[in-house]
TrEMBL record:
<feature type="transmembrane region" description="Helical">
    <location>
        <begin position="391"/>
        <end position="413"/>
    </location>
</feature>
<dbReference type="InterPro" id="IPR010559">
    <property type="entry name" value="Sig_transdc_His_kin_internal"/>
</dbReference>
<keyword id="KW-0812">Transmembrane</keyword>
<feature type="repeat" description="TPR">
    <location>
        <begin position="234"/>
        <end position="267"/>
    </location>
</feature>
<dbReference type="Pfam" id="PF13424">
    <property type="entry name" value="TPR_12"/>
</dbReference>
<dbReference type="InterPro" id="IPR036890">
    <property type="entry name" value="HATPase_C_sf"/>
</dbReference>
<feature type="repeat" description="TPR">
    <location>
        <begin position="114"/>
        <end position="147"/>
    </location>
</feature>
<dbReference type="InterPro" id="IPR019734">
    <property type="entry name" value="TPR_rpt"/>
</dbReference>
<feature type="domain" description="Signal transduction histidine kinase internal region">
    <location>
        <begin position="427"/>
        <end position="504"/>
    </location>
</feature>
<dbReference type="Pfam" id="PF06580">
    <property type="entry name" value="His_kinase"/>
</dbReference>
<keyword id="KW-0802">TPR repeat</keyword>
<feature type="signal peptide">
    <location>
        <begin position="1"/>
        <end position="19"/>
    </location>
</feature>
<feature type="repeat" description="TPR">
    <location>
        <begin position="194"/>
        <end position="227"/>
    </location>
</feature>
<keyword id="KW-0472">Membrane</keyword>
<dbReference type="InterPro" id="IPR050640">
    <property type="entry name" value="Bact_2-comp_sensor_kinase"/>
</dbReference>
<keyword id="KW-0732">Signal</keyword>
<protein>
    <submittedName>
        <fullName>Tetratricopeptide repeat protein</fullName>
    </submittedName>
</protein>
Length: 637
């Protein structure tokens, strides 16, 4: 026993000595270790496991942060950003790319800054934010051109080609891919040359040039055999399988899609796996193999939901709808068809905003053109009249000046009318943005009840949802609704949300007794976003004593209506901290604040707004208080 104790004591002393010596590792040793970890991470990413690559790279980051050397910090952050990109963790990838940029800037390495900016463009493309992706790609191109980094231009051309391919501008896509191919061949870059061949094959496939597309894919496989990139092989197998499916050669399609599935499982490429399972599901559907089709489509749906890959959701849901329609299971077919339409409509919000931006840009360009033409006319008139002093010319000049003033006044009036019209359109866009987001979450909750065989809860939820949706649709067409209608909608909304949460949520509406709720008018659905934030971001769903209080009163002068919404959640300051870690922004709050700005733009009577964390008032209290005032309006006026 004594000998055992001595042995343990010796081991403890020995381990402590090793730990102390490790603390004194020289800076050069730390740098060598960082380099070794980063090299290992790179090898693992290419040939083995993404999870292992992330773990090894995290060790490199810890050591690099000890050195505080931007040379190693920049490399480690960038490598981890790449790891998370391929693993499908977009938020973490954004985080590390944004950490890498200032480190490269501190080193004065413009080329590396350009590379990271290009990678951020890829992240935005993966989220279907094509306008943001284009912005970063063009910035990347500008940096490379300024630095005369010709070798890197091929990757930028390739990215631009990808964007044009997505929006089906295939001729421009082919043009950029050919530029990229020439650049990669010039610099003997086999991997990127293979990718360029792959992209050209995809364009030919979309143009129904199947034989030409297969030629490019075979060239890509041949080029990739020189380096053996499994990731590119998985993409090529998928594209070839897709080509065979498009050409109705379903058996060959399944062979290549199975190869792609096997590689993407091995590489843990979960985002890519969604598309493979979708294509396998639709191919088996063409072959009337309903069992296999259902298996792959449901697996694709589950993965897409886990990874929040909304862009591919409509195709999966429509595929399931077609499957069940073929099997005469019309109830399931209707459910998935409705879900696909709902998700597709919610994604169309992006195109609505883009069209709105295009309309505003067109308007501004036209206005500048008119002003330029008017200026030219005035200059010509003045040149013609120089040197002439008789009375008729003076009279004519006065008439011209008056005409110019009239034109300017008319342009000013038309501009104000256009501004009001644009604001009205933006108001409608903002209201329509709220509905798809809420409806999708509600339908998901109903689906969950049905899958859990909670039919009575599902029926109750569906009835409450139908009532609320009807109220929202009726109210969204109006600029103002009665206070009574607004409160009824809020009660329906809170009641509906309570069905989704495990704990009960109490609420209280306290309204000034002197207010006639049927006559007083308020903007519709203005309070709802803040109640939603209290429930979701305020963490009331996890609070067994959750409570929301809404007070409506008159101001001291009696000309303003004051809304005060208070909850006992975690508070706005803590919610912001948690949201910043997830890089999440509250869309509901932004929409509400935009509506306040639009209202103040259009009205002479202004709306005032304030959000306060309760801890700033009393450290013993928690929660958030939102207060806003609006001018009192009634239906009689």
């Amino acid at each position: 026993m004594i000998r055992t104790l001595y042995t343990i004591s010796f081991l403890l002393v020995f381990c402590n000595a090793i730990a102390q010596s490790n603390k004194k590792v020289s800076s050069s040793e730390l740098q060598k270790q960082v380099t070794a970890y980063l090299d290992s991470s790179s090898v693992l990413l290419r040939n083995n496991s993404l999870i292992k690559s992330i773990e090894i790279c995290q060790k490199a980051i810890y050591l690099a942060e000890e050195t505080e050397d931007p040379v190693y910090l920049s490399k480690a952050y960038k490598r981890q950003g790449i790891n998370y990109f391929y693993s499908g963790n977009v938020d973490s990838s954004f985080l590390y790319y944004n950490k890498a940029i200032p480190q490269f800037e501190a080193l004065g390495s413009k080329i590396d800054v350009g590379k990271v900016i290009g990678n951020i463009g890829l992240l935005y493309k993966s989220q279907a934010q094509y306008d943001k992706a284009l912005e970063f790609y063009l910035e990347n191109l500008e940096i490379y051109e300024e630095a005369n980094y010709v070798k890197g231009l091929g990757s930028v051309y390739n990215n631009l080609g990808n964007l044009h391919q997505i929006i089906n501008n295939l001729e421009y896509a082919k043009k950029y891919y050919m530029l990229a191919l020439q650049n990669f061949q010039k610099h003997e870059n086999s991997l990127e040359t293979a990718k360029a061949y792959c992209n050209l094959g995809a364009v030919c496939e979309k143009q129904k040039e199947f034989s030409k597309g297969m030629e490019y894919y075979e060239l890509a496989l041949e080029e990739n055999s020189k380096i053996g990139s499994k990731l590119l092989d998985s993409k090529l197998f998928f594209n070839i399988g897709y080509l065979y499916q498009s050409n109705k050669q379903f058996d060959s399609a399944i062979v290549y899609l199975n190869k792609a599935e096997k590689l993407r499982i091995e590489l843990e490429n979960h985002h890519g796996l969604i598309n493979v399972k979708l294509r396998l599901g639709t191919t088996y559907l063409e072959l009337k193999n309903y069992g296999q089709s259902e298996k792959y489509l449901l697996e694709a749906l589950e993965l897409a939901k886990q990874l929040e890959h909304d862009l591919v959701l409509p195709d999966i849901l429509f595929g399931l709808a077609s499957l069940y329609d073929d099997q005469k299971q019309f109830e399931k077919a209707y459910k998935y068809q409705s879900g696909g339409i709902q998700v597709k409509d919610s994604l169309n919000t992006i195109s609505i905003e883009n069209k709105f931006a295009e309309m505003a840009a067109t308007y501004e360009n036209e206005k500048k053109k008119q002003e330029f033409e008017l200026l030219q006319q005035r200059t010509q008139i003045q040149n013609l009249e120089i040197g002439q002093k008789n009375a008729w010319i003076i009279v004519l000049l006065v008439v011209i000046i008056l005409g110019v003033v009239a034109v300017l006044v008319s342009l000013r009036i038309n501009r104000l009318r256009a501004d009001h019209k644009i604001m009205d359109l933006r108001q409608k866009v903002l209201l329509t943005q709220m509905n798809p987001h809420f409806l999708f979450n509600s339908l998901t909750a109903i689906q969950s009840f049905i899958l859990d065989e909670k039919n009575s809860e599902a029926n109750n939820y569906l009835s409450r949802l139908a009532s609320l949706v009807r109220g929202i649709l009726e109210n969204s067409r109006e600029e103002f609704v009665s206070l009574e209608t607004e409160l009824r909608t809020l009660e329906d909304y809170i009641g509906l949300q309570k069905l989704r949460f495990d704990n009960d949520i109490s609420y209280q509406f306290e309204v000034d007794a002197s207010l006639d709720q049927t006559e007083v008018l308020v903007p519709p659905m203005l309070a709802q976003p803040f109640i939603e934030n209290a429930l979701i971001h305020g963490k009331l769903r996890n609070n067994p004593e959750a409570h929301i209080e809404l007070k409506i009163s008159k101001s001291e002068n009696g000309d303003l209506l004051r809304f005060s919404i208070r909850d006992n959640g975690i508070g706005i300051d803590e919610a912001k901290k948690q949201a910043s870690k997830k890089q999440h922004k509250s869309l509901a709050t932004k929409i509400a604040l935009d509506r306040v700005k639009i209202y103040n733009f259009k009205s002479s009577k202004k709306m005032y707004f304030e959000i306060v964390d309760m801890k700033t008032i009393d450290q013993n209290k928690s929660g958030t208080m939102v207060t806003y005032t609006i001018p009192i309006l009634n239906s009689k006026n």
